[in-house]
Every structure is written in structure tokens, then in C-alpha cells.
Amino acid sequence: MADPVLTLSHLKKSFGALKATDDVSLTLMPGEIHALIGPNGAGKSTLIAQVSGRLMPDAGTITFRGRDITRLSVAQRARLGLGRSFQISSLIPEYSARRNVMLALQARGGSAFRFLRPVMLDRALVQGADAILDRVGLRGRASVPSAELSHGERRLLEIAVALALEPACFLLDEPMAGMGTEGVGMLVDFLRALKSEAPILLVEHDMDAVFALADRISVLVYGQIIATGSVEEIRTDPRVREAYLGEEAT
Ligand code: ADP
Ligand code: MG
Fold first, then answer.
1. pTM
2. Mean pLDDT of 164-180
3. Which of 12, 13, 18 to mutate to test ligand 1, by most ligand atoms within 8 A of the CB atom?
4. 49 CA distance to ligand 2 centroid (A)?
5. Which domains are seen in the chain, by residue range?
């Protein structure tokens, strides 16, 4: 079997007496969408924050592409190809959609851009940005300031920015939040295609989306993973139904 892209091993994180992450271990395999579900306050965002580096675990290790990254900063992890989490937006509101993506392309500093003179650089960045905006369906909105985009469009732009950084794995914290049915449908199709580029650790509340997308699901309750399995295994797991899914699963 292939090596995991990302391995969380016995992670622990407490806030005072609250064990927000209580001995969590999981893997993200090449090409998969591993969904993390659980009730509000279960510790999903806390876990993602430890993976992205915004929070330091109290114990345990995080291995990314064979390297221990547990003590690295957000920026160091991003440079190694760890995708950002999407609950914190880093879009610059007054910049156009295109310029936000151009900034990300430049931040990546890919070899394609390194030797270009300024005029050529700008042209290459515009072309690169527009190609990415095209992929997420925002090409027609390229010159609109991100502050003036709809909520759903901003989520798509955040994904465009993440794509520009060409990560080796994506961390998505509730990317469907606040999107209408149509937006969710589009995003489901998009993420299904995206996983062939890099595997996705997906925190998501929309169960229909999770069941449609996930290769594996882990269920987090009170900081602990109570089950990991395929969609079918999770849907029919009595502990999961009791702890979380309730009647929703029928
Ligand atoms: P989820 O994303 O699953 O809804 P969170 O990870 O946001 O859950 O929160 C898990 C628990 O940790 C909650 O009880 C929350 O109130 C608590 N928590 C999260 N962040 C902090 C923090 N910075 N300080 C104190 N408590 C926190
Ligand atoms: Mg959360």
C-alpha cells in the first residue's frame, strides 16, 4: 500500500480542563477524500488548526510526506505543500479576484515565474490567474473586488487561491458553509475532480455532500475518533448513529 500523505499520531490538545483533541490518530492517503464529521464543538476545527500549524498540539506527532512537521510554523508547512484551511479567509477584500490569485501565484514563487522580467512576469501571472479562475468558474468575475463577490463566489475564490499554491494536500474546514444548493452541487463536482490533484482532509457539515464525496469518514465526538470507515460502514455503524447521525442516517 502507498504511504500516507499525512499522518496524525496520538494528537492531544486541551483548553484548560477541556480535552478538545483527545488522542486522535488518522491518515490521509494519496488520492482520497477523508471526511471528518462530528457534532458542533467535537473538536474538528481544533484538529485542522493543529495540522495547519495555527495551534500546537500538547502531545503527539504530525507527519507530512514522511517528515515530522509537528513543530513547524504555518508558513513552513505551507512551503512544504500543506494546503491551508479555509475557515480563515486570507483574501484581500479590496483586490480583484484576479489579483488575489496572482498574489498566491507569486507567493508560490514557482520556477515558471522566477526568471521573468517584471512586464513579462505580470503577463504570466495574469494568464496563470485567469486559467485558475476559469477552473473554479470565476473567470467572468476576475476584475471584481473580492469584497463585492457573493459569499459562494468568495469560497470559490479561496479555493482558487489554494489551487494557485499547488499544495500536496488540501485542508478544508466546512467549505460548503453558507452556500446554496446550487453552489454545493458545483463544489461537490469540483472537489471530486480536485482530489486527483491532491488528497483532501474535509471537515463538512453537509451530510449529503460528505456521503457523495468521501472515500473514508472519521467521526469525532468529544475530541475522540469513535469510528473510521467507508460511507456505508459509517452510515450503518450503531455507535455513530447513536452519537451523531440520529435519524438523519435513515
Ligand atoms: P468543531 O469545529 O468540531 O465545532 P472546535 O474545534 O471549534 O469544534 O471546538 C472544540 C471545543 O474546543 C469546543 O468546546 C470549543 O468551545 C473549544 N475551543 C476551541 N477553541 C478554543 C480556544 N481557543 N480556547 C478555548 N476553548 C476552545
Ligand atoms: Mg468548526
1. 0.85
2. 86
3. 18
4. 10
5. 1-81+167-210+220-225 (3.40.50.300), 88-166 (no CATH)
